[in-house]
Amino acid sequence: MKQYRIDGAEVHGIADLYEQLNRELMADQDWRLGSSLDGFNDILHRVDGEIREGDPATFVWTDHAHSRDALGFDETQLWLQNKLSRPHSFDQQRIQSDLDGLRNGLGKTYFELILEVFADHPLIELQLR
């Protein structure tokens, strides 16, 4: 069984999370995963394929509470505002709606979005510790 580790104590923002994901998932690749939920989802599809071939995988996320805080409201707001600053790259109406929802307490934090990506891959076990 493959076991991937995310050290939540070392996650102080989105870039730190992807640094760890790259270390765990991209060590044998000649390219790096950027800070992209879609890109992360694509990588988990690769892991799904490996599981179907008989190689189960578990992600162990230690100190996840620290990551939850680090990838919470403030970091998510900055991430969305950055997207709004690039109007030709992102759907501005959707991003503004996401930002408004976050500010109104109804939107999802980046941590919650990452958990949703994991949830879309039921063959992959995620252990939050």
Would you mind describing this structure in some detail?
This protein has helices at 14-25, 37-52, 64-70, 73-84, 92-103, 110-119; strands spanning 2-7, 57-62, 125-128. By secondary structure, the chain is an alpha/beta fold. Helices cover 53% and strands 12% of the residues. A three-stranded parallel β-sheet has the order 1-2-3. Helix 4 runs antiparallel to helix 5 (92-103). The protein is built from six helices and three strands. It has a single domain (2-72, 109-128), classed as Barstar-like (Barnase, Chain D, 2-Layer Sandwich), CATH 3.30.370.10. The model has no long low-confidence stretch (mean pLDDT 96). The relative contact order is 0.19. The protein starts with a strand and ends with a strand.
Radius of gyration: 15 Å
Which structural class is indicated by helix and strand composition? alpha/beta
Task: Give the strand order, joined by hyphens, for the main sheet.
Answer: 1-2-3
Give the domain tally.
1
Q: Under CATH, the topology is which?
A: Barnase, Chain D
Helix count? 6
**Total count of strands:** 3
Order of helices and strands: EHHEHHHHE
Strand content: 5-15%
Name of the CATH superfamily: Barstar-like
Major sheet details: 3 strands, parallel
- As a percent range, the share of helical residues equals 40-55%
Mean pLDDT, nearest integer? 96
CATH architecture: 2-Layer Sandwich
CATH class reads Alpha Beta
Give structural attributes.
single chain; 129 residues; alpha/beta; Barnase, Chain D; three-stranded parallel β-sheet; 6 helices; globular
